[in-house]
Fold each of these.
Amino acid sequence: MDGSGSCCWGGRGRRGRAQESVGSLELTVQTQDPTPPVSRSLFLAIRMNACLPCAKCGESIHPDTAAKNNGLCMPCKGGYREQIEEGKRQLQADRAYEQSAERKHWKGLVDRVYCTAEGFSGLSQEEKTYFAVSCLIGELYNGGFDQFFSNSTGEMYGAALAGLWELEANASAGLLLQAKEVLFGSQLVPTDQTQRWSLMPTIGDDAAPEHKQLANLDRLFCGDPDRLGARCREFAISNGLYADD
């Protein structure tokens, strides 16, 4: 800025002059062609180093960013603002779920099953149904039927199947029975994990044709034909396992 109060932006090239006023003070701004003239609000923001709202989402951005991106923040300019917002919404939902009666009940069941002498047998019949079906759902969405049967959860096969029948989740029960047939045929599913491994053709053989059969059953189950999550919640609330939030 020179002694007359004029604000000069340095650089080579032909210069034009534009006047802006701040209050009663008139400023003369020198700009370079072919740079287009800046808006009054952007000019004042740059002068005061103040943030501006993104023209699309309203988030505060630095005036330099606004000038470079035609008023947009970087996420809006790059097209990934919605992914960021979805991540925020999911984080809020996860935090709310952690404080819910459903989550607290589930953590209590896990402690009783794995940290007490009674274990799974110490649960009430309603709790066994809820726990076994919930474990089945979790394993299926994480790694499919092969994971359910190969992990320790496989010992709850009978309880999970009975639970699905109790919930009248007939389509899901049918898929579980088909998966059992693929892996164990007409044999009973052992409660001992090592014995289950010895019978499962998929253990140690990534090329086993049973993998393809199970993948199709996994896809059908994860299509959620019985709305299992909703059925489990309704069952738990109606049987007084936890209160509705």
Amino acid sequence: MTESAPPQTAPAWRIFAIPALLALTGYLLLYGCDRHLRTRHGPWEVTFLTEATGTPALRIAHPNLGIPAVTLRFPEERLDPEPPSLPDTVRFDQPRLPVPFGATVFDDLMYLPGTVVLHCFGHEVQLLPRALYLNRREHPWRELATVDLHAADKLPSLTPAPTGRRPSVPAASSRAIPGTDDTRRRQGPDASPAPAPAPAPPGPPVAAPR
């Protein structure tokens, strides 16, 4: 009678390699899908320029979302000196990109085009896919073509305060114990020290033990 051969077990590396390979494949597929969803619409494109009259302006466009070019003009502002790189188109596909004038104060670019907030000459310009916010007022994209932003439209919180001497604020004085040297120095050299508390009245006599 012949004995049956013992069953062969799989190598130990297969037990760990196959699940790891499946997890890596799933991660790459999910990462590729997520990356496509985050970048499929593309970033905001903003062109910084100056007109022939010297007026600075922004031209905003996003063809993939069907947003036509919208021009924001600042007729009461001038650039001195004017940047030599104008006109310059900035694609907001990375956070906190430098701009030729103004500043990028906020951006959320997780899913493009995301949200971009610019501060230019005391005005706040917020780009969202559904609407354009100018100085925190909503304007639908389809109703815009050219918008003039005047000085009267500036946000008070973004307007620099006038320079000048600030009034002095007295420093808070620390508490002092009455009658101490510190109190006498605060009151002056002629101030008399605070009177000492009166002694307590004597109690009834205690009879001596017999």
Amino acid sequence: MNQKNMKKETCKNCVLVFGTFDIFHAGHVAFLREARSLGDAVVVNLAQDIVVQELKGEPPLHSWEERAQVLRQSGLVSEIFPGDKTRGMFSQIIAVKPSLIAFGYDQIRLKEAVDAWIKRYAFTIPTMTIGAYKPDKYKSSILRASYDRSQTTP
């Protein structure tokens, strides 16, 4: 599925999600399954490596390409786009024209920024937060702390 087809066909009822998905885990799977249940397609705005470094204070364990490959292999997403290199632009919202934007339970500041952006540009795209799946076990920051950095492939 290419971006042109996504805009004209599938995106009539698509859900846009944002994320890093660096250590893909059961919490991500639950999040993407829930997002998929809310529309016909899930489109991922996958954070660029430079933005991950800026947000988390260290580079991702896996490159953008590796993270995108894992997402594709999961079978849970319809399309993956690279996120903006400049935070706060949200160009994929304009490109994808989603019917819904879904956020993870821990993406509070991102949701606030997107909601403000939507209001500023007078769009009528609903947003929602998907609840956590075992956050005491499946949270990227917890998993990253115990992750063996010698592993280089997802």
Amino acid sequence: MFAKAWYYNKHQIRFYSLIMTSKNSSTHPFRRKSDQKAFLQHRSLQLLNAYRLIIALLLFSSNFFNISLIQRITKEEYFLELSIFYITYSLITLFIGSKPNLEQRFQVHINVLVDVIIIALFTLTAGGIESGWGTLIIAPIAGASLLLPGKTALLFASYGTVALLSQEVIGDFSGIIENTSYSQTGLLGIALFATAFLAITLANRASESAKLAEKRGIDLANLAQLNHHLINRIDSGIMVIDEDSSIKLINRAALNLLGKEINILNTTLKDVSNDLYQILKAWRLDRQNSSETHTLNRVNLSSLHVRVTKVGAREEDKGSVIYLNDTSDFDRQVQENKLASLGR
């Protein structure tokens, strides 16, 4: 019986490292998956809002510096007013974005519309698409496309393209822009759609990776639960100990053999049984004799056969498994074999 139990336990050792990992996490690691996803989306939206505020501050500060790019501005008073409005709006979105209960999809749509309109007006006051200000529209489109991928990303790209073409047409007919460049505007529009398609691809890959991680997490949790059920049906006592000598797993048989009726998980082995702790300590000092079986004598109780084995095949794995077997069962089996041999 002892040999049979030891053979079964030996083939179960590769599961214990999984069990030790799962014990440190929730039983259902993806129970709050929706909450985690919402948190990540909210944080991404806040990063986009912070980027908008930084751009708005840079545009506002550029009104007070003599920069060659700024010297092209034909409507300086409009540029300053737009800068103040953009800063105000950026502060408002940063404050509103701190409220996670608000609908984020609606916020993203409104923010993209305001961004493309404001940047298009900046481009118009700066002399058109040739001023280079139109490229500022790429980052908001890319960020919004990652937050709301799919067809919505293409919609955002169309917003930017229409806004840039509109400012070029308005500047051409009003005379604000001296040298219009529709071809350059078209190329920038193509770049916006390329950015949207790239964001869609990245979002799809991230979604597939998240689904794969979720599936593997569920499989790991189910495997740990299955193995926990299996080892509790083994007659031999099993204890999984981490590198700090804390008990990470113990089955019912081990609890019965140690005379414990309460859960002792995360308790140090020394507090549970100093004799077992000394055996474990000696095994860690001399792992070459890892196959050695120790006998633990107990007052007014039968002795225990104790065997310690390492968890995991890697050198850095520090966990260990302690197997406990009641010697009375082993002695009874030996006696039965002797009687059977005498009978023959």
